[in-house]
Amino acid sequence: MNTAGLLCYCRAGFEPELAAELTERAAAQGLGGYARTERDSGHVVFLGDDGQALDAALPFSTLIFARQKLRLIAELRGLDPKDRIAPMLQALCGRAGRPDESPAASDSGLPALPRAAFGTLVVEHPDSDAAKPLAGLARSFGNALRPALRRAGVLTAQDNARLPRLHVCFVDGDHAFLAVGDPRDSAPWPMGIPRLKLLADAPSRSALKLEEALLVLLTADERERLLRPGMRAADLGAAPGGWTWVLTRQKLQVTAIDNGPLREHVMDTGLVQHLRADGFAWHPAKPLDWMVCDMVEQPSRVAARMAEWFREGWCRHAIFNLKLPMKKRWQETRLCLERFEAQAGVPLTIRAKQLYHDREEITVFATPLRTAS
């Protein structure tokens, strides 16, 4: 079976959007490929003739609907529950203990695996209702596979985050994928999901969306440079104050725009000015460092309004959500982002992702091209 390709995870129900995105982006790079998936499976397999070229042409940071991007090594079906390890060693090593002889690597376009090719083992399953019962298997199997890989010389004796990760993804008890995660070109979290805790004083669960956006869409250097105490921000559609609360935790001064009320303890920070106004009409008298927006409105209208903020110079950086329609969600995403970029009037670095804490929406970070790290 051809395993020259990628394994990507996504939010269950958004497999068609991820498949369409991968197909279109690969074609734009002159590469053929086809997606294989099932609705609500939480993953997409994207196959082509040149797995290495597909991997290079589709950087993880540019993929909107992918929570994780991995390069396929092998797909194993009909695994015997009594011995799942031997077929995996066979696929990785050619025969146990000889990782320098790897027919699976050749089939997938990967180079022959050297000894200790992987620094970490991740055994996981897609984030779907059908796959959740596999969580126990993933935990126990990882404990059994890890020492076997180390004996075979495939995995380092101690975890090494600088080396590629070996991912084992179970989609059923007898069906698994083996794949490689490049630390520079993939999500660092199992299943591609950052585990964030909702603090007791968060005004709403929407606070987790902005916290995840700051973690995923900005680099560590950008978080340090672009989120400094005393910076000024506007939160459009702020009530009940989840996103405003996140910004105040960064010690930003926030103008919260909403006709609805904010939670009292958010106002008690002394960093918030609440204006009862329409987020689609209000703008600041002087340029702000940040604008954030989580208003429920048609994505095309939000994209146009966000572009106006940059065109008029009302903010330097922005994070906003685009609520997606029920159908043609990839097409609407692409059109809205293209419209936003064209109408902004200044060169921008734009990063967009459907985050774990998003639902029927994507989150966008935009900053002037010169400020991105």
From TrEMBL:
<dbReference type="InterPro" id="IPR040739">
    <property type="entry name" value="RlmM_FDX"/>
</dbReference>
<keyword id="KW-0949">S-adenosyl-L-methionine</keyword>
<keyword id="KW-0698">rRNA processing</keyword>
<feature type="binding site">
    <location>
        <position position="206"/>
    </location>
    <ligand>
        <name>S-adenosyl-L-methionine</name>
    </ligand>
</feature>
<feature type="domain" description="Ribosomal RNA methyltransferase FtsJ">
    <location>
        <begin position="204"/>
        <end position="297"/>
    </location>
</feature>
<feature type="binding site">
    <location>
        <begin position="239"/>
        <end position="242"/>
    </location>
    <ligand>
        <name>S-adenosyl-L-methionine</name>
    </ligand>
</feature>
<dbReference type="InterPro" id="IPR029063">
    <property type="entry name" value="SAM-dependent_MTases_sf"/>
</dbReference>
<protein>
    <recommendedName>
        <fullName>Ribosomal RNA large subunit methyltransferase M</fullName>
        <ecNumber>2.1.1.186</ecNumber>
    </recommendedName>
</protein>
<feature type="binding site">
    <location>
        <position position="294"/>
    </location>
    <ligand>
        <name>S-adenosyl-L-methionine</name>
    </ligand>
</feature>
<comment type="similarity">
    <text>Belongs to the class I-like SAM-binding methyltransferase superfamily. RNA methyltransferase RlmE family. RlmM subfamily.</text>
</comment>
<keyword id="KW-0963">Cytoplasm</keyword>
<dbReference type="InterPro" id="IPR048646">
    <property type="entry name" value="RlmM_THUMP-like"/>
</dbReference>
<feature type="domain" description="RlmM ferredoxin-like">
    <location>
        <begin position="5"/>
        <end position="70"/>
    </location>
</feature>
<comment type="subunit">
    <text>Monomer.</text>
</comment>
<feature type="binding site">
    <location>
        <position position="278"/>
    </location>
    <ligand>
        <name>S-adenosyl-L-methionine</name>
    </ligand>
</feature>
<keyword id="KW-0808">Transferase</keyword>
<feature type="active site" description="Proton acceptor">
    <location>
        <position position="323"/>
    </location>
</feature>
<feature type="binding site">
    <location>
        <position position="258"/>
    </location>
    <ligand>
        <name>S-adenosyl-L-methionine</name>
    </ligand>
</feature>
<dbReference type="Pfam" id="PF21239">
    <property type="entry name" value="RLMM_N"/>
</dbReference>
<comment type="function">
    <text>Catalyzes the 2'-O-methylation at nucleotide C2498 in 23S rRNA.</text>
</comment>
<dbReference type="InterPro" id="IPR002877">
    <property type="entry name" value="RNA_MeTrfase_FtsJ_dom"/>
</dbReference>
<feature type="domain" description="Ribosomal RNA large subunit methyltransferase M THUMP-like">
    <location>
        <begin position="117"/>
        <end position="179"/>
    </location>
</feature>
<dbReference type="Pfam" id="PF18125">
    <property type="entry name" value="RlmM_FDX"/>
</dbReference>
<dbReference type="InterPro" id="IPR011224">
    <property type="entry name" value="rRNA_MeTrfase_M"/>
</dbReference>
<keyword id="KW-0489">Methyltransferase</keyword>
<dbReference type="Pfam" id="PF01728">
    <property type="entry name" value="FtsJ"/>
</dbReference>
